[in-house]
Amino acid sequence: MIDCAIIGGGPAGLTAGLYATRGGLKNVVLFEKGMPGGQITQSSEIENYPGFFDHSKTGMDFMDTWQKQCFHFGLQHRLEEVKGVRKEGEHFVIEIAGKEAVEAKTVIVCTGSTPKRAGVKGEDQFFGKGVSTCATCDGFFYKNKEVAVLGGGDTALEEAYYLSNICSKVYVVHRRDTFRAAPPTIDRVKRTENIELILNSTVEEVIGDVTGVTGIKLKSTSGEERILDVPGIFVFVGNDVNNGVLKEQDGFLCDVNDRGQVVVDLKMRTSVEGLFAAGDIRMDAPKQVVCAAGDGAVAALGVISHIQEHS
């Protein structure tokens, strides 16, 4: 019987594992089918995490120390895919792809969210052939070339700024004339000479051939259409909640809101006793590493209290 099963290995999951093991739990297992770290491992630099201000370090470097610290204190990592979680009596059953299910006294779900597709014609056809959702991953392929970024939030503008250091020009396409990003981020983008803002416009189609993307068709709110000749477009239009492990035949194991985000209280407790959620999967998540880490710590402390009360 596992004391605490942590599903998801990003900042929330790793922090939960650290606090649970240092808090005295002996059998804490992190289920993550890949290497732990989360989406932050794709970032080129970290400048808003307190105490970490080394511009020579990438997100991968940043999270590497987290893994070492967590595993040092006894967190177990199982490279397995969790297909679902159900509750039977006082315990939980963790269903694992291709293997026997395991039981756990408590569960912390930290599966996060993934970038949404924009739903533009040609987007799926050319995904991976000029359409990307990761500037850090694919930006180098467009060195000294022009690219487009679709979106108006923090991620879109941060990635546009990152690309401006690689590409000859970056076009930011946004359907409104104002941005949802933080004011310092907006100001930095506006001051970058090789970033051009195309506002009040939408991407109608991604155009390409057998070699990949060759351009995008734009349409302004006034109805004017134009073709932007770029070999790549980066899409940042939000995220989908990774709540699949909580799905049941007639709904979800616990309460979720209308966006599929898990409803939690201030202690990261869900509507099901012994089940916690932390990080980007939970309602009103700020989608910041420092916040996800805080969630993980709070959830782990809640797990320890729960186990003590039911011992």
Q: What brief labels describe this structure?
A:
FAD/NAD(P)-binding domain, alpha/beta, 2 domains, 5-stranded parallel β-sheet, 311 residues, single chain
Explain what you see.
The chain has 311 residues and is an alpha/beta fold. It folds into two domains: 2-115 and 239-309, FAD/NAD(P)-binding domain (3-Layer(bba) Sandwich), CATH 3.50.50.60; 131-235, FAD/NAD(P)-binding domain. It is built from six helices and 19 strands. It has helices spanning 11-22, 59-72, 135-138, 154-164, 183-190, 289-309; strands spanning 2-7, 28-31, 76-78, 82-88, 91-96, 102-109, 113-115, 131-132, 146-150, 169-173, 195-198, 201-209, 212-220, 225-228, 233-235, 239-241, 247-248, 251-252, 275-277. α1 (11-22) packs parallel to α6. The chain starts with a strand and ends with a helix.
